[in-house]
Predict the 3D structure of the following.
Amino acid sequence: MKGRFDPWLPTLLLSGLALRLIGLDEPLIDQQAWRQTDTAAIARNFLDEGYDLLRPRVDWRGISSGVVETNFPLYPYLVACLYGVAGGASEWLGRLLSALFSSLAAVPVYALGRRLSPGPWLARCAAAIYLVLPLSWYFGRAVMPEALMILLSLGALWAFQRWLEEPTWLRLALATITAGLCFAVKIPTLYLGFPLVALAMARCGWGFLRRPSMWFFLVAALLPAVMWYGHAMSLFRETGLTFGIFGGTGYDKWAHGLLLTSGFWSSMVERFTFSVLTPAGVVLVVMGIAGLWPTGTQGRQRWYLYAWLGGLLVYLLLVPEGNRKLHYYQLPFVPLAALFAAAPLAALFGEPVMGGRIGALLHGGGRGGRWLAAAVSACVVAASVHEVTDYRRPPSYDYYRACLAAGQALNAKLPRNARVVVGDLDDNAGTPFRARSPTLLYYLQRKGWQITPDEFAATTLDSLADIGAEFFVVPGGFVLDKSALWAHLLRRGVATAASFPEAWYDRASFLAGANRHPGPERHVLVVRLRKEDGRAGSSR
């Protein structure tokens, strides 16, 4: 059946896409609202301030140009292009683009699976599992570059494999372009070096080091990343704005001391059990790792799977804090996990793909084996539905819902070019340079500053007002218990996002006024930092 059209593949792709289109028009206040609104802001700024791919701009820019050190911004640039075609920024377009990228990534998963088994079931099961596992499903609809990263990384691996099988210049160009874009879009994808070398070794032995085309691929694939990140550092030197790509800026993603703590390892076990694989998926993956172990003539073609796993484990150990803190850091594990998990399912469908005692047991399952495969698959789907539901309504959902409501209300009321200070929590506070929390600024559709509760002070607000800040927008819970600051804000006049521009100058009047507005925006406060004549100072 190899080389033939498989009607299962488009069916799986459409089904995976349908899953990702659920809630397409939802605002960006679900899991990773921070990262999503930052990405969406960069896309919107491309639309509003010019399509200069080399100068991505954030909202938390103060009075600077806003250009920021970040990953190669191909994804937000493509989103901005969709915005331009549609005639304006619409978040659902970003979700749609991610859904398309994520669904299409099942094609190289399927293609890689076809080379592991004489029949179609391993490939089919791998594509299906990839599409339904929680991280792939949820982040396959998030306004983030991760879906594009996965598509490019799998495309690079598949294209490289195809080039080794039939070394034409066209296939070499495809492998080089996809790998180059992949490394530039997300530099952690350098873990792909492990399976790429393993594939080259399986095909050519150590002789691959003597092939000029291999060295061309290496240099040409790495060059875009080298050029971009060198340029990104120059953007950082221009503005001091960064997403913390390199050490010394932003929070410490590397934090290798975590590896010596039980908390890190317990969090990883929990994460992989429920978010990355699901409990049933864990069982399938372990069985697949054992059953696909390279032996005999097939061994050379399977070694790259284990090299791929090794590269991912190195990545996990090199970036422990990033992996502990952010669920989407484990997304690269999902395609490989899908290939391993598919092997025992394929064996239950009668494909001679697994070796050892596990393989012998599964291959003898007969008709009952198919029912068992269906039951296990149902368990994976059920667990994924539960996990994705939690992602769409995380513990922070109500907070971000208030930010959304306040932003929408104030966007219609504040001067169009107003510079705004937002007060928000930030896990990265205290680091020399950090990515600021963008959500309030994003929904305000204004530029400005973000400060954390440890920076809340009258002197801070006065100094920012002196350089152009006009309003202070902050969730009430962050300031109501700070008596000195609260007294200072009342002297200026405190409004809610719902009541603005109406303001109150004493606590009793404020509480009475705020309680007249039942919506979530009443929990976000607005304070004017500059007088009507434009000078800094108390409004009263």
Q: What stands out?
A: The chain is about 60% helix and 5% strand.
